[in-house]
Amino acid sequence: MTTDQYVITVDDLRRKYAGGFEAVSGISLSVARGEIFALLGTNGAGKTSTVELLEGLAAPSAGTVRVLGHDPYRERAAVRPRIGVMLQEGGFPSDLTVAETTRMWARCTSGARPVAEALELVGLGHRAGVRVKQLSGGERRRLDLALALLGRPEVLFLDEPTTGLDAEGRHDTWDLVRSLRDTGTTVMLTTHYLEEAETLADRLAIMHRGRIVTTGTPAGVTASRPARIRFTLPDGVPAGRLPLSLQAAAQGQRISIRTHDLQSSLAELLRWAAETGVRLTGLDARSASLEEAFLEIAQAESAGV
Ligand SMILES: Nc1ncnc2c1ncn2[C@@H]1O[C@H](COP(=O)(O)OP(=O)(O)OP(=O)(O)O)[C@@H](O)[C@H]1O
């Protein structure tokens, strides 16, 4: 991929706050046009501090950021009309209705979509006449998203877009983000929901203490982690009777096996169970999830491994 296909490029970026604390300690990443990129990390890892630099809300202490080929802080006027930003807290006047709020925002947005279209996109069309203060937390997040989408942005920054949404709302938002991606919008997302990153992101980076510790596709990040098989042995069958080649950890009759070759380990376990006539209850076999990979990385980093 050539560099001009990257919509966001970040090189050795640093952000030091007044007082001297460095929240972003030299990160580099690139996001291609039409890609959904998720920035994950433990609390205080530096995600918001990073995204604010990409949005041009603050200047880096060192390093470079380019969004659509421009410095988003120094060339804000060139970048701002082409990006959409959904912050964690929208902070609207609560006495205005949903439609009034969106109309007000549309007046400040060049080439804005029709208000009704923006509200329909996020499933708020039927709430247009409701005052913002009467919206649920999830509906406010949708309104935040509608406002971020008003200017048909080429790059969309979503800071925890589904916090407070129920399962249906979360899935609706994922579908919307995917459809925006499919029409060429580039999305930079921060989230605490690892399932969200796993299902939505084309690529992701995991941050810890201001640095990127892992980056890649969701499948690539989880591929190196062991899969897990869990089950319960019947009373009277000790864990010691399991084949030695299965690396089993036992808590009473509850067994957990970690393996880098799920298919072979599972086949061996089932063969042993069939040959010995042992019934395994609650049998569950799964590849590593992003959540497990994340926890392992965060714990290892915290322990200084
Ligand atoms: N204005 C500020 N002045 C000094 N330190 C700050 C400031 N804003 C954030 N920090 C610190 O920078 C670090 C990174 O914060 P940041 O909000 O970027 O993390 P985050 O990854 O977005 O966290 P979370 O997941 O909790 O939202 C934290 O230790 C935070 O306390």
UniProtKB/TrEMBL annotation:
One of its GO terms (molecular function) is ATP hydrolysis activity. Its main location: membrane. Keywords: Antibiotic resistance, ATP-binding, Nucleotide-binding, Transport. Residues 8-234 form the ABC transporter domain. SMART domains: AAA. Pfam families: ABC_tran (PF00005). One of its GO terms (biological process) is response to antibiotic. It is found in: Cell membrane. InterPro entries: AAA+_ATPase, ABC_transporter-like_ATP-bd, ABC_transporter-like_CS, ABC_transporter_ATP-binding, P-loop_NTPase. GO terms for cellular component: plasma membrane. It is a peripheral membrane protein. It comes from the Bacteria. This is ABC transporter ATP-binding protein. It comes from Streptomyces jumonjinensis.
